[in-house]
Design goal:
seven-stranded mixed sheet, about 325 residues, about 20% helix, Metallo-beta-lactamase, Chain A, alpha/beta, globular, 11 helices
Length: about 325
C-alpha cells in the first residue's frame, strides 16, 4: 500500500506531539477548522506504561534516561467546543498527569470543567484501562455521579468488586450501560458506537468505539485478540472512519523471547499492515497504531520499525496527537 497522504499528514509521530503548536491557554485550534470536536491522545502505551516497572530492556533503559521517550498508558480525551464538555475513553493509572495535559483546553471552563470530565467510556477491565477510576473516589477527587459508560458485564464487575464498588455505593460514579452496536449520543456534537471485540475477557467483555463528530469519525480499538477472530471486517470498519487508532501492542513475534505471544492475544503490526493494505487509496483513512508494549521496536520514530510503518502509509500514534472530528 502506498498512500502518500498518510506520510504527509501522519508524520506527527516524528515529533511526539501533533497539534500542540498553540501555547498553553490558546484554544484557537477550533476556530481554524469547521469541526467542533477535538480528540487528544493522552497515552499510547500498553497497560504497564513505558518505561515499565523494574524493566531494564533497551527501550525502557532509554525511557528511564530520557523523559521525552516516556509514554503514558493508552487513553483518549474527546472535547466538544460547542457544548463545553469533555470525555475520557479509558481512565488509566496515569490520569493525574494526563488530565494536567488537558488544562490548556479546559482552562477557565471554556471547553469543559478543569477539574473533572463530563463522562468516561470504558473499553474493558484490564488494569491500564479502568483503574484510574480510583482517583475520582472518596480518598481523592470525590466526584459526584460522574457518568461512566460501560458494558453490562463491566458494570457488574465494578458493582460487585471493591474498591470499585465503593465508588458506586458512594455515588462517586454513575454507571451507564451501553449495548454493542447501539449508538449513544453524548452531546449534540458527539456520539459513540461500541463494537465488541474478542480479547482476554477474564473480568469483563471488551469493546472498541466508533466516535463520531460533526464532520468525521474515529475508530478506536486499542485491544483485540486478532482481526481474523472478529466478526467484523477490520478493513470495512476502518474504511468507514476518517481516522483509526488500532492495537499495535507488538510489532512482530520476535519481541519477547521465551514467551508465546499468541497467548497474550494481540495482532502484530506487521500483520495488520498486510490486512489493511487493501484499503482503497481514495478512502485515505489515516491509521495509527497505539497501545504499544515496552518491547515494541516502533516506539521510537527514528527506529527502523517505525520508518517501515510510515513508508507503508501508516503511522505510530504519539502522546499528544490531536485530531479534529
Amino acid at each position: 500500500m502506498r498512500r502518500r497522504d498518510f506520510i504527509k499528514t501522519g508524520v506527527s509521530g516524528l515529533t511526539g506531539i501533533n497539534a500542540l503548536k498553540n501555547p498553553p491557554g490558546n484554544n484557537s485550534i477550533f476556530s481554524r477548522e469547521k469541526p467542533s470536536v477535538l480528540v487528544k491522545v493522552l497515552g499510547t502505551a500498553q497497560d504497564g506504561g513505558i518505561p515499565q516497572l523494574g524493566c531494564t530492556c533497551r527501550n525502557c533503559r532509554r525511557a528511564w534516561r530520557d523523559p521525552h521517550a516516556k509514554r503514558m498508558i493508552a487513553s483518549l480525551a474527546v472535547i466538544d467546543s460547542v457544548n463545553r464538555k469533555s470525555f475520557l475513553i479509558d481512565v488509566t493509572p496515569d490520569i493525574r498527569f494526563q488530565w494536567e495535559r488537558l488544562t490548556p483546553h479546559l482552562k477557565g471552563g471554556i471547553y469543559g470543567s478543569p477539574q473533572i470530565p463530563d463522562g468516561i467510556l470504558l473499553t474493558h477491565a484490564h488494569i491500564g484501562h479502568y483503574t484510574g477510576l480510583m482517583f475520582y473516589g472518596y480518598e481523592a477527587r470525590g466526584a459526584r455521579e460522574l457518568p461512566v459508560h460501560c458494558s453490562t458485564r463491566m458494570s457488574r464487575f465494578l458493582t460487585a468488586n471493591g474498591p470499585w464498588s465503593q465508588l458506586v455505593g458512594y455515588k462517586n460514579i454513575s454507571l451507564q450501560t451501553f449495548r454493542a452496536d447501539g449508538i449513544t449520543r453524548l452531546t449534540s456534537e458527539i456520539s459513540f458506537t461500541p463494537l465488541q471485540v474478542p480479547h482476554r475477557d477474564e473480568f469483563s467483555d471488551t469493546h472498541g468505539f466508533l466516535i463520531e463528530g460533526r464532520t468525521k469519525r474515529l475508530l478506536y480499538i486499542p485491544d483485540i485478540q486478532g482481526w481474523d477472530a472478529w466478526r467484523h471486517s477490520i478493513t470495512e470498519e476502518a474504511g468507514k472512519a476518517d481516522y483509526a487508532l488500532l492495537d499495535g501492542t507488538f510489532y512482530s513475534p520476535d519481541e519477547l523471547p521465551g514467551r508465546d505471544l499468541s497467548r497474550i492475544g494481540h495482532p502484530f503490526i506487521q500483520d495488520s499492515m498486510h490486512i489493511l493494505g487493501g484499503l482503497p487509496d481514495k478512502k485515505r483513512t489515516r491509521i495509527y497504531f497505539t497501545h504499544l508494549n515496552h518491547s515494541n521496536p516502533a516506539i521510537f520514530p527514528q527506529e527502523d520499525a517505525a520508518v517501515r510503518i510510515r513508508r507503508a502509509g501508516f503511522d505510530v500514534a504519539a502522546d499528544g496527537l490531536e485530531l479534529l472530528l
